[in-house]
Structures are given as structure tokens and as C-alpha cells.
Design goal:
The protein has 263 residues and is α+β, with helices and mostly antiparallel strands. It has 2 domains: 2-213, BirA Bifunctional Protein, domain 2 (2-Layer Sandwich), CATH 3.30.930.10; 221-262, SH3 type barrels, CATH 2.30.30. The chain is built from 7 helices and 13 strands. An 8-stranded mixed β-sheet has the order 1-2-3-4-8-7-6-5, with helices on both faces. It has a 5-stranded antiparallel β-sheet with strand order 12-11-10-9-13, with no helix packed on it. Helix 1 (7-15) crosses helix 6, helix 3 packs antiparallel against helix 6 (180-199) and helix 3 (94-110) packs across helix 7. The N and C termini lie far apart (42 Å).
Length: 263
């Protein structure tokens, strides 16, 4: 059920209003939602314009890449999704740009700069700090869209055991309370900036920053499934489309999607 935006978020959004770009006008808040991505996708299917923001205080069915559950306890994080309608030439880079933007937004709000793991998981050392899920739709109806959802762990919370062993929070990493509203607002502002840059031909700048933020993961051994066969190599770079470039004993291989395990 829709509800008024919390005061801390409203105040923070007001501070960065001039930098919110397409995200300045159309926003909805839910105290609890099944999945902000699902709600945003439903609105996109109904013709919602680019720039819609759907945010929630908690999710009961939040998910990450490959359908994995994303723990979204009440009051512990930022859970939001946005509707984009990018031109075809930049669709493949939206997920890379989103990772860069969320890392930049976190840094602007807290002073802590996290790292990125391909394609757009946000990490603090070996632990996951935030996740991003980009889902495309609408092509069959002639109105394609991409919903970009992000979940950021702001405060420590009671997570399921399998999550607690590999997750962290902003407050844990910086050692002090963090302003949820400011994190949300700065991430939206950064996402608006990076998306506008993509649309204006700034893809090289986005991939360059991604490489810098992913420095802790590039050069590491990886494995992935290729038609039922486990392949191995060293993560070396991303190509201009955002695909992962892996050096194997057979030469360079490009991985466009699927699960890549880092060793």
C-alpha cells in the first residue's frame, strides 16, 4: 500500500533536487512491498514514463540476480527501483552504470568508497554491501523498458545465517550511524548523472570508472558454466558493451551473462 515518503528521505531528496534529473518528479513509497522491481515493472508495462521511482521500507520477496532472495528487513536499508527507457545502443551498459552510480552515491553520502564485482555487486572487502538488479521488459508491446532495482544495507540487522556470513552494512564499515535518507538521495542523484552521461555518449567514462572500482576483483581467478561445462580463467577487463573479458588457456573469452564465481 502506498504511503507518504518518510521525512528523512523527503528532506534529503530536497537537498539534492537539482541533481535528481529524471528522478525528480514521480516517486512512490510503500512501508512494505513484495518487490520494488515488480511494482516498478507493472507500472512500466502500463506506460509509466522514464524516471519513475518506487521505494519501500521493507520487501517480503526482494531478489537479486539469478532469482536469489535479497533480505530486506524493515528499517535496515534502502530498497528502491527506477524505470528507464534507454535507447538500444546503451541497454547493455545500464547495469554497469548502475553499479558505478550506487558506489558513487554511497561515497558521497558516507565518505566510504566501496568496490564493484562484475557486473554490479557492491562490496566492502570480501562482504557484500549492496546489490543491483536490472530487468528488461516491454519489448513485445513496442515500449521497452529497463527496471533497475537496488538494495543497500545501511544498518546492521538480523539476517538469515547464509546472508549474515557474507554481508555487511554501511554502519559496520564506517563505524558510525549513517543517514538513510542521504544515502538514498545521493544514490538517485548519481544514477541520474551516470544514466544521462550514457545517453550523451559517455560510455567510455562509465567503463573507465567501473574498472577503477573493480580493481580488487580484476586479476582474480573465476569460473563459470558454459553449456554445462565449467570454464576457468582470470578476470581481466570488461569490453565496451560491459561484458566480462576472461583470459583462459585458450585465449580471451567474453562472458555476457550468467553466474561467475570468484576464487
Amino acid at each position: 500500500m502506498k504511503a507518504p515518503f518518510p521525512r528523512d528521505l523527503t528532506d534529503a531528496l530536497g537537498v539534492v533536487r537539482s541533481r535528481l534529473g529524471i528522478f525528480a518528479a514521480d516517486r512512490t513509497w510503500h512501508e512494505q512491498a513484495s518487490s520494488t522491481n515488480d511494482l516498478a515493472a507493472a507500472r512500466a508495462q502500463d506506460g509509466a514514463p522514464e524516471g519513475l521511482v518506487v521505494a519501500a521500507g521493507a520487501q517480503t520477496s526482494g531478489r537479486g540476480r539469478l532469482g536469489r532472495h535479497w533480505a530486506s528487513p524493515p528499517g535496515a536499508g534502502v530498497y528502491a527501483s527506477v524505470v528507464l527507457r534507454p535507447p538500444p545502443n546503451i541497454v547493455s551498459l545500464v547495469t554497469i552504470a548502475a553499479g558505478v552510480a550506487i558506489a558513487e552515491g554511497i561515497a558521497a553520502a558516507t565518505g566510504f568508497t566501496p568496490g564493484l564485482k562484475w557486473p554490479n555487486d557492491v562490496y566492502a572487502g570480501p562482504r557484500k554491501l549492496a546489490g543491483i538488479l536490472a530487468e528488461a521488459g516491454g519489448a513485445d508491446a513496442g515500449a521497452p523498458y529497463v527496471v533497475v532495482g537496488f538494495g543497500i544495507n545501511v544498518t546492521s540487522a538480523s539476517y538469515p545465517l547464509d546472508v549474515a556470513t557474507r554481508a555487511t552494512s554501511l554502519e559496520t564499515e564506517v563505524g558510525r550511524p549513517c543517514d538513510r535518507g542521504r544515502v538514498f538521495a545521493e544514490c538517485l542523484a548519481a544514477l541520474a548523472n551516470r544514466y544521462e552521461s550514457l545517453r550523451d555518449g559517455g560510455a567510455p567514462a562509465v567503463t573507465t570508472v567501473w574498472r577503477t572500482l573493480a580493481g580488487g576483483f580484476l586479476g582474480r581467478d573465476v569460473r563459470w558454466d558454459d553449456d554445462g561445462t565449467t570454464r576457468r580463467g582470470v578476470a581481466e577487463d570488461i569490453d565496451p558493451s560491459g561484458a566480462l573479458v576472461v583470459r583462459t588457456d585458450r585465449g580471451l573469452v567474453t562472458v555476457f551473462s550468467g553466474e561467475v564465481c570468484w576464487e
